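Lecture notes, unit on protein representations.

Consider one protein chain, 605 amino acids long.
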Amino acid sequence: MEPTRIFDFPYYQKDNHSLKKSIGYFHEGAWKYFSTDELIDKINKGSRGLLKLGLKPGDKIVLAGYKNRPEWMMMDFAALQVGIIVVPVYPTISSSEYEYIFKDADIAASFVGGQDLYEKVDKASKVLGNYLDTYTFDRQDGCKYWEDIFTEENQDKVEEISSTIKAKDLATIIYTSGTTGAPKGVMLSHDNIVSNIKAVKEILPVTKGKICLSFLPQCHIFERTASISYIYNSVEIVFTGTDNLGGDEGDLKKIKPHFFTTVPRLLEKVYEKIYNKGLDLSGAKKKLFFWALDLTDDYSYDMKNTGLSNVKWKVADKLIFSKWREALGGRVEGILTGAAPCPAKIIRIFSAAGIPIREGYGLTETSPGIAIGRYESDGSMIGTVGPTLKGVEVLIDDSDGIYAEGEGEILAKGPNIMMGYYNKPDKTAEVTKVVNGEPWFCTGDIGKIIQKHGKEFIKITDRKKELLKTSGGKYVAPAPIESKFKENFLIEQMMVVGEGRKFVSALIVPSEEALKEWCSCNEVEWSNLVNISENDKVNTLYNNIVKETNPHFSKIEQIKKISLVPDPWEPTKKDGTDAELTPTLKLKRRVIEKKYKDAIEKLYS
């Protein structure tokens, strides 16, 4: 029987293609795996344990952890199976955000990993009156272990409750990262997420016998939905973190995955390492490396090489690109990137090297997929996020009249659209627009439709709330400008500014490794990023980059002035100050503008 609720998927795997290695991870010095039967056994023990604690359908629990692990997935399924609503929380958010979420959702219990995370969650629980307890996934002194709740009793009760849960019932509340204020709890039903999982079943290159690596946070709807889709497709999942992916001893080399999801920033870091290794070469090897890299400038999906061009690509593949594939384990058949725009250059380089990258697009509110680039012939187009998923409709709404020709806000409709924001009907109303008598979800993203290969591809051009309006009344979209500039290796991060000003400027965080290499080749003494950012030659270098890149944009979009920022922007700050990035690495523009107010004012003085 086809799954209709999230917790149906492990049972579907058991009935259709049970695995000896369904999910696994590196734990206590060894690789540990759970079969499909063992996974289901743990899920049922967890469900029975939650009932033993006195929890009932409609209660809410928190799941949080620094590193992906099977226990997280087991407790997710266990809670959902008995009608308990799961509230996944990022481990890196502040204590005040934890307290806000705990109070807003009225959390009943938590299951976490890591001592400091336990302390953060335990502190947040103090704002609640009926909180039960916090349990850890690892045995720690003074903490209750998650398996302590396990019991052999009440399986009949588990099955009784499970049979009453409907596809339209609320399954999870996911709090957004709060780029524009306090987090909002996105309510998703079983059907919201299940519809997305079924829509990608035939799209992702994941089939029985393959291995998928999972390292993006499980609390992110992108990775959570992807992981459940792996269960649906009966492929082996290996959970890990981002701290040990690369290198000869990294998890990519050890696991040799066929597929994984990621965010663009991680791909950028991988490319930076590849590029820096190229810089370290000398003589003919260095020339060969950059010759192969230059070939990728003209790459496009489905390109056909013949004659001399075909010979060049074969040489480049054998001598250069094959080594890149080997660095990722040697078996990657596809990578799906999401959560933020991926620079076209990154997609082009990896795909040209035989590492197929496609972009997906969506939001937490859309469970998350709206569109995904396909892996088959003519199914993708670089610079777009692909065609819409089955069952999802999009509408380009230009009624505000502030967009370029053919552009507008992307509205979406389908079974994946959220139930609404928890406790915030007014906020739900703000993102709902009635068109021809039907409600559509307002994504806040600006885009357009491009026709190619007989398909409609969605191109994202910017965020509606991030549009800048100059003092001359002209609108400027920052994201495409930032993405283009970040293709240059000397630029780590960038934010365009200029709201209410005569022209647009930019804050630029230099890439430390690339800049250090440039300094050594140009007789500029290196000290540290702070001092070097004030060096005249370095400032001339970055102003020249601006001059070279500006012609890609219209006159009003061109950067007139820049300020080098020597402090990399992070999703969490050890000193307790506001982080400049969300957990999904999006810019917190208000935070950055406030932090660098003086530097911005100087640009316009």
